[in-house]
Amino acid sequence: MRAWICEQPTGLDALRWGERPDPVPGAGEVLVEIAAASVNYPDLLIVQGRYQHRPEPPFVPGAEFAGVVRAVGAGVTTLTPGQPVACLAGTGAFATHAVVPAHLCLPLPPGFALQDAAAFIMTYATAHHALLDRGALRPGETVLVLGAAGGVGTAAIQVAKAAGARVVAAASSAAKCALAQRLGADAVLDYSVHTPDGTLRDELRRLTDGRGPDVVFDPVGGALTEPVLRSIAWRGRLLVIGFAGGAIPSLPLNLPLLKGASIVGVFWGEFARREPAANAALLQALVQGYLQGHYRPVIDTVLPMAALPEALRRLEARRVLGKLVLRNDD
Questions:
Q1: Domain 122-269 is in which class?
Q2: Burial annotation 274-295 (CB, 10 A radius, 16+ → b, else e)
Q3: CATH 3.40.50.720 domain residues, the chain
Q4: CATH 3.40.50.150 fits domain 2-119+298-327
Q5: How far is CA 48 from the centre of its chain?
Q6: Whole-angstrom Cα distance, residue 167 to residue 184?
Q7: Rounded to whole angstroms, how far apart are CA atoms 146 and 220?
Q8: From the first residue on, what is the mean pLDDT of each consecutive set of 10 residues in the chain (330 residues)?
């Protein structure tokens, strides 16, 4: 097999595309021939040594992929050779093959494209868990989605609209806002124009008829979070997804007090580990949503697997709308 190997998590220069021994599945594991893998922001942080999960080097990065089961280990009864699957294993995706625990693989029904499946689990599970479980989103409420043109932001727009919410999508350029509108956002806010220290709060007030958003989906952090929290509706919920903007904000705790608001942490990966039955139900609901046409990953570009460094550089430079996918050539 071939794989991207990270010798030390010191940055993109530490990656090399090389040969590794063909893997063999052990008990409870499956061997998957990888058709496509998506690139997520944590993949960049892991190879830079900046993520909370730090695999022992050398390792093959890449959290999420889709492909076909080629062999199963002892005790595996839920999957069979020839079964198409999507997997979220944390590492191992940027390769031609991977051995993963069978329970980390989602069997795919007919009609679920492998390229879409490679870009599906992490973003849609995060959005669904955030909005419907942690955020208790109700039909008719208004959701503000920050970072609306990224992978998790585009998923959040679709999940919120399918739940009957009104969506205000915020992004950092006119092109990104236009993408959000194509996905069904009811209004957009360009925070390259309406800045956190400028007219952002005024524009948000205008777009919500002075009430503010009921739910804020925030994977960005940084300077955006405090002014958005100041604008939130009574009994609003600020969903803390991540900090793609770089800085972890420090928030005055009188703000949630004054609005009767909640600041809610969202960590889908830990939820999946601690509550496997609830997560399995969530994933099945997402699969059905895909088959019904409610959810479709936004794929910016499909590149060859050998182009991983280029893909990570694009991601780091914020030049991606939706998700980047790497494919293994036939």
A1: alpha beta
A2: eeeeebeebbeebbebbeeeeb
A3: 122-269
A4: no
A5: 19
A6: 8
A7: 7
A8: 94 92 96 97 90 88 97 96 96 97 95 97 97 98 97 97 98 96 98 94 97 97 96 98 89 96 96 94 96 96 96 91 91
